[in-house]
Each structure stands twice: as structure tokens, then as C-alpha cells.
Amino acid sequence: MFKRILIANRGEIAVRIIRACRELGIETVAVYSEVDREALHVLLADQAVCIGPARARDSYLNAKNIISATVLTGAEAIHPGFGFLAENSKFAEMCQECNITFIGPKAETIATMGNKVKARQLMSEAGIPVVPGVEGVIKNFKHAAKAAKEIGYPVMLKAAAGGGGRGIRIVHSAEDLKKAYETAKAEAQAAFNDDDMYLEKFIEEPRHIEFQILADHYGHVIHLGERDCSIQRRNQKIIEEAPSTILTPKLRKKIGETAVRAAQAVDYQNAGTIEFLVDKNGSFYFMEMNTRIQVEHPVTEMITGIDLIQEQIRIAAGQRLRYNQQDVILNGHAIECRINAENPALGFRPSPGKVQITLWPGGKGIRLDSALYNGYEIPPTYDSMIAKLIAYGKDRNEALSIMGRALEEFVIEGIDTNIDFLFTILNHEKFITGQIDTGFIARKFNLK
User: Fold this and answer.
1) 352, 355, 359, 361: CA torsion to nearest 10
2) Among 9, 158, 341, 347, whose Cα sits 20 to 30 Å from the Cα of 178?
3) 166 and 37 both lie in a single domain
């Protein structure tokens, strides 16, 4: 087992990893930008190293500085969390070249699955169902127009190197294609420095279902059930839950086995997520693979009792998986709400600033992952997510009741948040009855 791990991230996920390491008796090293000097992950870690100015590209995306901090502090491994360098294959290669363990899959796996076109082709070859679409990248607008006509509208344009909902456009008619194609390419270039696009059939009113995978270095792969991530705004997840209301035990088994085969097809190692679209008829299609821990991993931990961060660390240290598939039993129901510093009434405008007072919810079935504290200054530089509130109950109704009560208790003063908006969603009749899909928010709240 490692003696010391550097955490190449910030915010609640850095705090989450520090806690997991502490329970394993592992020392931690935090890295921080100049604006994060007083951040909670810096205060909690055994050591902390400043790696640059506020801008992410100068600090949390500065691979050389992070590697230098690792060597300087004698850390043996790096946990990248999610976002920033978590799915950067070149960074994983740099770690390997410097004899530092990257807590995640192999660099070549990250590169393959990070390219949505390559991933799609590989899954298709492995017999994994994929959404009907173009094989390879779109060469130009003429190619896109021809492909869309053949496949039939609506279609979805996606950035080949995409993630996080960026570089995606849904196109309902030929008249809308040109503008969507140009804006998606521009967005992809700005976000990923890569404007390659691919095109596939848009599955209408699907559920976004993802399966959590654990795989060790010895060919042992299991899944830990699904998470339903259908409540989204602009392709960004807002509420996630496990298990899904749409999956029967038979369908869960079928998709779970498919997810394991998908991971085996790329010789996957460590924790990962296979994402699917599931239509009204129960047909499912591979969408993408995330080669990292997910924001929504706590709901899986709550219903399985398995600490995913600790398992990541054990796998990276060369240990064998401690579980077989039959050991994974789903108990109860968990729901996660992402608490963002934003103002829904003003078009979800980000709301950085000083947290004057925060009163956290508690009681039976509540977990809160956050890096907030009274007096903390939320910088305008990074993602607006400031906390994850997780509720657990014996069934979905109880989990919903606990979550509703917890949202009412949650107080954050000094900034705007989306807490009231989340409460409104949870109390919508269609959400309560599980009649949701990825377009739920756009339709029910008239939001684009």
C-alpha cells in the first residue's frame, strides 16, 4: 500500500479523497492555486503545495507543476479525482515515465475511450449495442448533411473528444443543421482543442443509465449496479439516483453484463463508468465510458456499502478485487442533489462570493460531501458545484422524503444557490412517480 498520495484536484472531491486516504492510514498531499490557499482540502491534508495562479491552466491543469510537487513531497501516487487532468492520457503517461502511480486506468485506455469515435467503433466491434450513427468523424458540413438525411432526424452532433455536456447539439431539422454544426465545432475547439465531430441518431426521451465498474490488474471485472442520471440541464447532471426506477432485475442483469464486457474489451483497470441510453422499450445503447471516478459515485456507495475511492487506491496499489459479482447486493435507495453556487432565476448565473453562514442538514440517511465552511470565499474561477447532498432510505419514497426535508434544512447565506430549484424538481408529480427522461427539465420548466 502507498505511504503518501498527492491529490491533483480541489473542492469536495479532494476532501473526499483525503478522508478515504486517512481511513487507510495514507498520508496526503494537497495542491492548490493561489486563490485556493484557504480551501478546505489544503487545510485538511498532511502537506500542501502551491502549483500556480488562479487560472486552471496555470495550476490544476499544469501537469509539470503537479509532477514536480509529487516528486518534491515524496508521494508515490497521484489521485486525479474528476475533471482537470483525470482523463488526460498524456498526464497518465507522464506519471508512468516518472515512476509515479496514476490512480486510474492505463494511459492508452484513457486515450482510446476518451475519443468518442474510437470508443464507439471499439464497442461496436466487441458486440456492444451502439446508437445508430456515422462510423468515424464527420469530414465537413456536406458529410454531416448527407449522414443526417440517411439516419433521419432528429440527430445529435457530438464532439469526438467531448465530455461534460460540451460540444453537443440536438438537431431536429435540416434547416437547423448548419448553425448547430458550426457552433458545436467552435465549442469543441474551445473546450478540447479538437473540433472533430461525429453524428448519431438522437434517441428521444431516453433515460441516462450508467453502470459503475471495478476492475483489477488481474482480469477481474465486476459492476456495482446502475445510477439514473436523467435529470439534466444542458446535458449537465443535476440529480442522480440509484437504483433506477426503469430497470427490472432482468434488464439490470443484462445491461450490467454488457457493461462488464465493454470494460473487458479495453482491458480496463480501476474504477470506471459505462454510460447507456435506455429507450421506452428497454432497448439500450452504449454512449460513452468515463475513465475516472464520477461526481455521483456516493449513491452507489450508499446502496452497496463499498467505498469506491478506497477501492481505486487498493487496485492501483496492485491488490486484487475483494468482491465477486455475487457479493454486490443493492440495498435501499439513494438520491444525490448537486448544490451549485448559481441563481436559477437569472439564467443560472454563477454566484461566487463569501459564504457568510452555512447550516448543514443532518439526521438519518443524510450524507453531505462539500468543501464549504463559514467565511469561505468561493472563487469565480472554477466549476459552480459547491456540495453534494445525498439521501438514503429503505426505498425511493423514503429517500425522497429524507432529501426533501434535508433541502429545507440546508442554509447557505452570502451567495445564491440552486437549492430551491432542486426542491421544486423533487416535488414535481412526474419526478415523484419516476416518469422522467433526459428532457424532463427542459420540458417541465421551459428551460433550454
Assistant:
1) 20
2) 347
3) no
